[in-house]
Amino acid sequence: PLAGIAAVSIVSTVNEAKKAKKEEEAELKLAMEEAGIDQTDEAAVTKFTEKYRFKKEYREEMEREKEKARKKALRELKAEGRNKP
């Protein structure tokens, strides 16, 4: 029974990863079309892809940092006894 649960969990995780990858590829393709990148120009596609992924990763990192700072501030306020919902 435990092996079955593990197998289902692994399959589910793999399916989610594939779905996320497809969504990212669709977003990337749409962004390339909006930017007017020629799909046949491999160098331009590679450059745009790297730049797009870097910007996306940077935005996600900044969001995580902002969330950490917000949580830290809330903890500090709570520790001071001034936490207001």
Explain how this protein is built:
The chain is mainly α and 85 residues long. The protein contains 2 helices and no strands. The protein has helices at 2-35, 42-80. The longest helix is centred in the last third of the chain and has 39 residues, at 42-80. The protein is flat. The termini are far apart. The mean pLDDT is 91.
What is the end-to-end distance? 44 Å
Can you tell me the residue ranges where pLDDT is under 50 for at least 5 consecutive residues?
Answer: none
Give the class from helix and strand content and strand pairing: mainly alpha
| Global morphology | flat
Main sheet makeup: none
What's the short story on this structure?
The protein has 85 residues and is mainly alpha-helical.
